[in-house]
Each structure stands twice: as structure tokens, then as C-alpha cells.
Here is the input.
Amino acid sequence: MTQSPENALITPYYTAVSTNIWSNGRHVVRCVREIYETWDTKTFIFMAEQPVMFFFKPGQFVTLELEIDGVQVMRSYTISSSPSVPYSFSITVKRVANGYVSNWLHENLRQGDVIAVHGPVGLFNCIDNPADKVLLLSGGVGITPLMSMARWYFDTNSEVDIAFVHSARTPRDIIYQRELEHMSSRVPHFALHMICERQEIGQVWHGYRGYLDLAKLELMVPDYQQREIFCCGPTAYMAAVKKLLKDQGYDMTRYHEESFGATPSDVKQDALEQAEIASEEADAINQEDLLQVQFTATGKSVQVAPGETVHNAAAKLGMHIPKGCGVGICGTCKVLKTTGEVTMEHNGGITDEDVEAGYILSCCSVPKTDVAIEY
Here is the structure.
């Protein structure tokens, strides 16, 4: 049978030979669509130039590599789409007051633009924490990883019993409202509840008002104690949820929250304190205590004191390893260690498979012996 010109163009594009699988690393993607979710929240959809199957675990995130005013900026955003739609992925970004990156994306990123992304990474996901009954708790734009999970459950016809409770400032601030209502109307085991802090003049709202508290939680999800809980939202929101659950004796080993958006204060403080200590002790270090860090791709090497990271070693040589969070969350600074041993205190920014393959996060990896890095 003679193949039409149209099919001749389309068929090779989707063959197994030309379709790659997404893996953690740096990828160049193109923005193919912009969608306004609310008055101040926009979804950006990305695809690769050549077909790529964007497989990831619902709840994981990517780190965007951007250039803003001539400066390289790294920022992490949760993937809001589901891997059940594999040839693209999306992020949903809310404008915020003085938001350096989020506002730049709204004002500058357009359909057709090309950017680099790193990932996907993240321990916060529903694949590694399976359950028959889940409670998805979100506040504001923190809904994005939970929406990825909900879409995954829905698209795969999962039998998981889902309770979704979302808190928004006002009715016009509810992200994905129509899609959530559609999913809830089609699936008997998908219970949707929304809470608005307040309603403004001209807005109609017949749902819950105020903030999530014990009384509302027990009304909406009376069996919450029996559910695996996934939570994401502003820091204050997550802190309030954790306190509520702990006060009620909830098994916190079944509680999971997203935390890459803001570096936990205790982690950040600990990192600063360790850097201070290392700086103060540098002069007192004996020469025999120094360790060698070699960067094989450039042929450069440097000695570091105990406690210094691989990233610091590169900086001493004037080498720039891209870095986003600085505390092992975003995964941007991943490099391959070919020899030697390090101590790596990360916060979910690298997979077990990558660790087994020899990769480390340079920002939180401290040499225990002389090491060689492929960079």
C-alpha cells in the first residue's frame, strides 16, 4: 500500500527508534503552549525538539535554567502534568509580589521559546508511597504536585480512594477548579472539597470558608486517620497541617510534604553554620589532613580541607558547576564521581539509581578521600 505524504512525515516521528526516554539530567525543551489557570497563575507546557517520553513520578519537580538580565538563574518548579500524557510536561507558575523568577516567566516566556531544564527529581511522589486511600491537601499554588498525582490516578483508572482538599484565598484564586470538578464528577471514589479564606464583592461561593481546621477536616474527610497524606502549600499552611495532625495522634510516617520551594530554615542555618566552622578552622588544618579533588575533564585539581564540598573545590579553581538550592534538594549540581569516597547529605535531589552509577550532588558532597570528578 502506498503511504500518503502526510503519513510519511508522521510515522517515523513516533517510531521506537527516534523516541527517547527522559532521564535525570539537563534537557533543552520548547514552550509549546501557555494557559491562564487563574488571573495570576499560568501553566507553561513544554516538549522536546525530537520526541521524548517524559516519564516521571507524579509529585516530582524540575529545575529551570534561565538567563535573566544576563545572569544565570536556577529555579525549581513542580511538574503539574501527569506522566500519563508522556510527550509533554507542564509547570504552573503563580505571580507573586516581587517574584524575581515567577514574574519574569509570566512576562517573558512565550510559546516557541527554548529553555534548559534539569530533572526530574524529588522524593515527594505517590509512586514511592503507594496506598489504597489518600488525602491530598494543598494550599494556593502548592496544588501543582497534588494535581499531577490526581491526574495520574484519574488517567490510569486507579482504584485508589482519593480525598482532595484545596485551600484558596478567594473563589477566583482556585487553580484547576473546572478540571478537578470534572474528575470528581466522573469518578465515584474522588471526593473534592474546597475552602476559600474569604469572598470578595461580586463573587459567589457556597463552599467552606476560612482556614482548614480540625472541624472542617472531620466534616470533609472523617476517615483521614486511615489515609496516606500528601501535603503542599505555603510554609505556614504546611506547619499548621502538621500541628493539626500531630495533635490528633496521626501516624506521621504516613505524612509526606513537598519542601523544595523554600529551603527549610533549620537546613539552611545548619549549612551556614558548617560553612562558618570550616572557614574558621581552615587555618588550623594540618597539610596531611588536606584532600585532593581532581576534575578530569579540565585537568585541574585542588586541595580542600575537611568539611569542604566538591562544589567549593570547583569554585576555588574558578569553575562553575550550576547550582540551584545549595542544600541537595533541586539536583542541579549533579556530577559524576569516578574515584574516591564522599559523604553526601542530600534532601531528595538525587535518585538511588544515580548514586549507584557514581553520581553525587556537588553542593552537599564532602570528600572522605582523594576524589576524581568528571567535570
DSSP finds nine helices and 21 strands in the chain. The longest helix spans residues 265-281.
